[in-house]
Amino acid sequence: MTATDRSIELINTAAQAAADKLAHDIIAYDVSDVLSITDAFLLASAPNDRQVKSIVDEIEERLNKELGAKPVRREGDREARWVLLDYVDIVVHVQHSEERVFYALERLWKDCPELELPEEAKATRGKAEEHAKLQAAEDDAADLGGDWR
Fold it and tell me: What pairing do the DSSP bridges indicate for beta strands 90-96 and 40-46?
């Protein structure tokens, strides 16, 4: 079995919405062979809670407006550390970067075929690592600055 045309349409729209809100490391897997509950998973992350929420809101709005799709379930809203949107055909996981590293969902689904995504979504690969290095450099600079006073 493979992901349906509807699933792929949902995944691509959600991936584009996430990319437009500057999500990091957007990736999608066809999980239809290993799970009977859904066809595909979309994973995306962001470096802070506010951005996680922004990405989730954009995905929900675009899927509703462009494809008439509404999630049957939404979890993890209050903390905005890991929000799950269940559209039956697809499940979207938007995680804070720390949760993404800790839970490493990619390891669970690495044997599943990766779905082709829009160019803007593919361009987000490696952004979390880039952001973490930049943040570490800024933190180091701030620590050094504190010693000079």
Answer: parallel
